[in-house]
Sequence to fold (832 residues):
Amino acid sequence: MKPYLVEMGRKAREAARFLATASTSQKNRALLAMAKALRERKDEILAANLIDMENGREQRLTSALLDRLLLTDARIEDMAAGVESVAALPDPIGEVVKMWRRPNGLEIGRMRVPLGVIGIIYESRPNVTADAASLCLKTGNAILLRGGEEAINSNRAIASIIAEAAKECGIPEGAIQFVDSVSREDAIELMRMNQFLDVLIPRGGKGLKEAVQANATVPVIMTGMGNCHTYVDESADIEMATRIIINAKTQRPSVCNATETLLVHEKIAREFLPKACAELVAKGVELRGCEKTRSIVAGIKPATEEDWETEYLDLILAVRVVGSLEEAIDHINRYGTMHTEAIVTRDYDSARRFLAAVDAACVFVNASTRFTDGFQFGFGAEMGISTQKLHARGPMGLEELTSTKFIVYGSGQIRE
Amino acid sequence: MKPYLVEMGRKAREAARFLATASTSQKNRALLAMAKALRERKDEILAANLIDMENGREQRLTSALLDRLLLTDARIEDMAAGVESVAALPDPIGEVVKMWRRPNGLEIGRMRVPLGVIGIIYESRPNVTADAASLCLKTGNAILLRGGEEAINSNRAIASIIAEAAKECGIPEGAIQFVDSVSREDAIELMRMNQFLDVLIPRGGKGLKEAVQANATVPVIMTGMGNCHTYVDESADIEMATRIIINAKTQRPSVCNATETLLVHEKIAREFLPKACAELVAKGVELRGCEKTRSIVAGIKPATEEDWETEYLDLILAVRVVGSLEEAIDHINRYGTMHTEAIVTRDYDSARRFLAAVDAACVFVNASTRFTDGFQFGFGAEMGISTQKLHARGPMGLEELTSTKFIVYGSGQIRE
Fold:
């Protein structure tokens, strides 16, 4: 392991031990100081971001990527406000989730504690630096931040500003550390720092996730692939279903909670599809349909097996007519990535059956799949959206960054 | 992957889908039928166990190992009663842990759901076959059981009896499957069945855990290494402290929750150690002490750095005199395996500080470390004792075999 990573790991472990018993007020003071510093030193951040933007243009990043990279006064203000909103949330650490008494008089409780040291490898927007660091500080975890090459100047500036502000409030240096390297080799070493990292969260594209799956030896929380469906049931309100599918597909097609396949009950297809498809096409959506869909709406490309499996992240929508609710559920459980699935229905039993039988992190009745998001769920910020079942599932907020320990109060009990 | 493992994985997935929405009464009926079948067909189990015992004697297993392997009428009765006690516990599946309303009217809840398919590789006693299968069935998970070579005949008999009983109650065959192989290569394939397994739980010795760490690509819950400490604080009740350390060391020294190091505050050492050490020695315990310990009690071997790190699993105890509570906490956080740690004290602040600052799955005040156990905690049975922080920490009962999904009730909400 590179000596600088060992040193960072050591400092993170030390900081984690301090943070585990830091008071809520000290953590909140540091968070508020971090928000203040982001505002006061925004010119440094904008200057660093300018370099990333210039490099990005030179490297001919797409305009969508450049937009994700761009920081403005308003975006830095959002970042600072996000840190403040984390300060305002209740501190989960020390909460005793449950406590019970055993026949021998032992009182056993589960207390929320920090995970320890969290590593995050991300490719997303620079605000992830501030979001992740503030969630980790609030939950008493030390964090190693390893952002993408395209945003390295912005991330470095943000990380150093918030780490300094936290340090001035007595938080150890090791609590928020930025891995200032773009080497792939270093990233892989980070994935294998078992003695220093309690968990690694990859947040980015397919390539990153595959690299983590192939190389990580530390415990990982996988995030984000979303092949999401919206199912329009026989009894759906057609106006509502149309509004929801338009929103789920077009409001922001490039993100994981956008809908990729529309499933429609055959009894409502003739009434629903012509108008909905016309509106989708008017919004620039390319449709790919099953045979039944194509027999109802003209001019739609045929969908192949591959379409059912694809997360387009684009203005493309696969459409399939199904014979029943059960057929829709089977399709979703077969092709979905267990991220977000929605039903539009007026039928009580259909709603309950869909909620129970669909195996996904988030299952919606009568709402757009676009709501799967830590902010929308009320978590203040999010570390990502877990698509695994172990430890955390769905948007990860503060609670997902904690573990528990059993605390046991006795009066001299021994085991017979 | 071996075709038979693919076939088992496929069947397990199918069964998991059925189990996810199986009713509590159907699952309980199957559990009671399993308990009944264990009693009615105990002669088959005893006959199979006889073969394992004969093989074990031929292979000159230690008498301790042979004792762990041995089944008797009473032990089969215990096994059946254990399955019944799991049937009697409340069903965690479907429980909505929390539910809240967002400003836009969305109602968001977290519902407990099964993990899916669980693999367990175990070397322990044959009762693990019945314990693990019943916990998994109750929580709607399919299970692949891969026991140790030494117990293969007993495990095969138990697994086939309970699987048949469950099947007669309408539970699919894939719900409880026994991996009838002793090949190391097959075990490694099992650790890499990502498309079929949601989690793998290794339960056994160091060799098994190292093999899992090196080879597993599926999510793992690590169990069991326990270098546990009992700390006798300055203010401890000496009689209670003596009783607790005797119990923690000698009641069953071969298990992970036995105490391996005794830490004693220097202000109580002269009063406490002579009597406690004499009682420990009288119970056959070999002591290894730091210099101060040896200056107080004659005839004790010196402890080396290695002793502080060792999980003896034997009648050996390392003893160290510390200058303060903080020194005890530092020693534990440095050398412990985050399993179980105990303080004996009469001081309110010492108890609270120890509970807060010791980083372990289970932290006890005034009780023997031997209580870290699913049965003792009231979980009915246990899948093992997790020493990791992610997902499950400490004894794993029913809740630890579940995940959650977000269920969201809307009325046509779309995202702006």
